[in-house]
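Quick question, first post here. What does this chain look like in 3D?
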Amino acid sequence: MSQLAATTSTDQALVISGLTRRFGGVTALNGVSLGVALGETRALIGPNGSGKSTLINCVSAVDRWDEGTVTLGGAPIKGRDPVGAARRGISRTFQTLRLFDEMTVLENVMVAMHHARGYGLFSAITLGPRFRKAENRMRHEARELLALTGVERDAERQAGTLPYGHRRLVEIARSLALKPTLLLLDEPAAGLNDTETARLAELVRRIARPDLSILVVEHNMEFVTSVASQVTVLDNGNIIAEGTPAEVREHPEVLRAYLGSSEDDK
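> Answer (accepted):
Ran it through. Tokens below.
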């Protein structure tokens, strides 16, 4: 299937155009182009080694790329500048959880808010009124996010003591604390049981809103079908299919490369 070009209309929050990433003699991404519309939840799927993690690392500016462009809201994103990307409205989770285990759940979420804390060093040292007001505001907003993600009761627990599924929800709460316009979820259902996966899917549907675009990298097709309106399929660094979950599930190249043929399911 030919590479599908990304749309450049004004309703596209994220536009990836001709993205190529090489590691020595290996081409992990081969001129990939795609767009994620404002308010859209799109899934990115593919077999292991297809380039999914490389793509999400480039979009979040954790990694650089060799060719192509990434823009958010029409403005370019530069590689290896994750702080700049976060300030531009890109937030993400990781395949491997990256919480501060010795801090409380509430503190883990509040950490993401300090880029817009509203007070300076002097106020923090003296515990002045501006500091106290900002901290109270952040604490209130963090509790609201924990309530949204369903882990408010764990607010005062150390993050490292939580069950794995709850830790995933805390990571999503922290990513939302950045008030992103683009949320990248890197295999959020990995390691979850069926009940936890269903709970996570309900949360993804609940946080979706017109001013937030969500790109989900995932293997679990049942989860993908329940949260995404559009699916992009990568294989060997190339897009081989795009469409609704139902369309992608029936695509012959997807059946071959990722989902397995009907014969394999017998």
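DSSP finds ten helices and ten strands in the chain.
The longest helix spans residues 129-149.
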